[in-house]
């Protein structure tokens, strides 16, 4: 079996399609090699070896060794140097690389092959002892920390101590002799912490490093990253061993990272950073603030031109925006990596649309290029242009959108804060971030760093998640000890509000007003393409005219769920509602309901007006009545005073209504069955509003939805009453409106008896929140205690309240759709309209499921409407 694939010298054993086996990095190094792009030669050990390594209890399969030896020989031949040969040494890097990119999640070891003897030879051969010893001390550090688990801080400590002793500020100010001293110090640190000497045999170094890469696959950072990104099912990481090229050989050398297009805006502009006289991670780590890539045109015009050529070659070959890494050694350019670049939602949209215009891809490909979830980014609030708040600092705009939040100064603090106050937005302020920080970064509304460039860890990660981010804001000074941040002459404390604008790089003190976004330009174009292709309609969940209008602007084709309970809050309304609940008899309830009716009607008028020409599904009152009464003595006393009854009476009623399990309690259709006058009032308000709006010359399509039905008899009971009221109102007003009466399918029994129910229901809407609760027997509000463990232990692949459980809950839906449609057709000859109105209606994976089972529409919150439109189009492709 072939475990090792070589690349270099204009050819390769592998190719880009072999990502699963060679990892993204290895596959693309092979591809670039074949394309004739200059790549230092090397070889890739496959992901299968990683899988075997773990299967065999962290042991490398024997068969790998001879293959690696052969590949080393080949690499030595191509480079014309030998591992461990002091007169003509070959140095290599050992790099990880899984099938999906996990930036900075695993460890890279550079300069491997240096030893006491080789470093001397290297110094002689290059005539640059400073360079040789700098490489050696870096190797001891990287190998020690990555392969042997020595804390990097111990090495850093020695470096700082030496710099202080020498009175210098930068690493680059240390002389060759200083670095020689440092090497000895590092070796001592290594020995102190590992109990062994730093290995002098390059092959020993190599094997230890290869194992270290395999070990990093299960390291904390990598596991955490896969958890957050929901990556599973990969075999492991590949290992790439590659001849070193040196960006730190002097002022004619350097290293950089770039994107073939702007990953923030998507503009067709070369975008990136580089550093002269630097090695690898220096650019990404945010230690020195790098130069913008365009500057390279001045410093190394030939290299820059070559790089522009490669940019073109890569884009026309991959037909996708690329994220590249390169190094210049003494004026010669080498490519070290290419992969499709992470980008913001807005950039994804622009790039996809522009690539269609450029003839690189077609519309269908463009639609598949944009992750629906990433559209969130375009729907993020933007800073109100009218806001008067003046920026107090400006950094580099690294990931667009505005974010305000309470300042936290560490990832741990972010986690602690989010646990204690889940509803309070936080802003993570750091000097720089590293892969250890991802959990905290994930919880922050935005990220601000004082160092680092556009390709720094913070920038890349924030962009991937669509989180606003500003980096390299140099006037920001963080003092973790006192918990304060100085921004120029201003000081803010941890816990104070700060606002960043990731679109411009501005930083403002306090909370700045934001405005809602709109769909235009490239976004609108992509949405048009999506609409052309999709067959599933997209409605919205809205219960105010403002939300309805917003959703319509975002492309909603109706309201799939208007929750009426929200309309019973507000001063006068809640009082009337409480009066109704506390009333002793029907007459009392009717009187209170009469007070509520004008409010309900006015609300419906507003919504019908906003949705002119589109269907509006209104759900009758759903929650249990006790939710409208206060549960504390003080609150109850106040209500009693307002209603003119005794406190005891309110208290008694609350006790009477108390439920052990409200989720399964006195709610949904059970309310209008016991208190028909409640349903009557609502239906009257709906029909009267519809008539009124129809008289304005608008088109009104009300759909009355009865919740929580489990038996046909329940539906018949409520429906009969509703029809009677509706007919009476229409007769009274002398005007007819078309309306439908349907039901939610959210009790498993309703799904199972959908054929019966469909004989009476004119539409179905799957209430997947309740259906999921009842199918799993999980109360949605009480999953906190076990869901994290369930997900960690993979007892559930995802939270079923976020992504529809296709296997279980999905079966009930399939049964419901099939039985319902068939029975309705047989009885009435009509097509039964079926939709979904749970939280799942805006989740792309669930939308795909709804498409497959043949629903007519999904309904989701206004801000998810564009996401659902795109997801519905992708479901067709
Ligand atoms: P990551 O997966 O975290 O991006 P890489 O394997 O790309 O890690 O390595 C990080 C950096 O190390 C690279 O960006 C590059 O600058 C440097 N590097 C890796 N291999 C070599 C090499 N053979 N020669 C020079 N620099 C290298
Ligand atoms: Mg890399
Ligand atoms: Mg429900």
From TrEMBL:
Any matching Pfam family: PPDK_N
InterPro entries the UniProt entry points to: ATP_grasp_subdomain_1, PEP-util_enz_mobile_dom, PEP_util_C, PEP_util_CS, Phosphohistidine_dom_sf, PPDK_AMP/ATP-bd, Pyruvate_phosphate_dikinase, Pyrv/PenolPyrv_kinase-like_dom
PEP-utilising enzyme mobile domain span: 427-505
GO MF term set: ATP binding; kinase activity; metal ion binding; pyruvate, phosphate dikinase activity
Class of this enzyme: transferase
E.C. code: 2.7.9.1
Catalytic residues as annotated in Swiss-Prot or TrEMBL: 457, 837
Pyruvate phosphate dikinase AMP/ATP-binding domain ranges (all copies): 21-58, 60-294, 305-357
Stretches assigned to the PEP-utilising enzyme C-terminal domain: 521-875
Catalytic activity: pyruvate + phosphate + ATP = phosphoenolpyruvate + AMP + diphosphate + H(+)
Protein family (similarity comment): Belongs to the PEP-utilizing enzyme family.
Function summary: Catalyzes the reversible phosphorylation of pyruvate and phosphate.
Name of protein: Pyruvate, phosphate dikinase
